[in-house]
Amino acid sequence: EISQGGGVWTPVLVGEPKILISKDISPHPEAETMESNNNIAGVLFQDRMFLAWRTAPAHFAGKETKMHIVSSGDNGTTWDLETTIFFGRDLREPFFLPIDGKLIFSFFEGGTNPVDFEPFGLFRMERVGLGDWTAPELFGHDAEVIWEIVTENGTAFAQSYSGDYSTPGDAQDLGKLNMFLNKSEDGTDWEPVGVEIVYHGGLTELGFYFDLEGNMWGVGEMRMAMTPDGDQEHSLLAKMTYQTGNLPPTNRTLLFTNLQKCSVMVQIFTL
Questions:
Q1: Distances (CA, A) of 21 to 26, 47, 60, 209
Q2: Could you tell me the pTM of the whole model?
Q3: Tell me, what's the pLDDT at 115?
Q4: Which of 27, 34, 172, 203 has CB 3.0 to 4.6 Å from 79, enough for a Cys bridge?
């Protein structure tokens, strides 16, 4: 049993774990898997289970990367191949977004240099039917990367970042990234939550969710920032308070505290 917030949670085991994807296992024979399989997304939509993942010879960027999408109408007993995406470049960060009666799939296109990070841009597709998706459509701004999408009360919130991704190994060119928080009612048209750029620095990968009071909590990694002692900061804890409304935030506070190479950020939006 797990006690949390005054309540008790009892985990229930419904079956033994089953491996669906590995270098030797695939849910569908036409969804070829390679040595590295990661960047996984899943969702339930209209009584079907959807699964997407990146497969490549290695975890690092390369020209052979593919992204498969499969779906199941019998809770994972059998799978249909929906589509396979191949650009001849790296593909990462798949997201399914069920919204407004639609299922939208997004990802970003990267580069081919295994020791560099070269995002080109974001792409999205909409499901029309079984095995039928619209062509990948470029959206967002140049070199943007979405790290998290969360739906709260029918509104989708997306945290993304972009900026100067630095020269590999150049410690003088770190921490020049912008973070964005956008929202959408239909998954197609996005607008900023308050200011366009909510943060500038080394923070990139921020995952977040809402609590029962409407506060947005997030945890991210600041791999590209240096402490005053010249040490690299490794992690960041963030709290962002967001209240629904049509007016932009009138006050925004950023507080940074360094503690044993960790940085804590508290960001408060006040409407």
A1: 5, 22, 18, 27
A2: 0.81
A3: 87
A4: 27
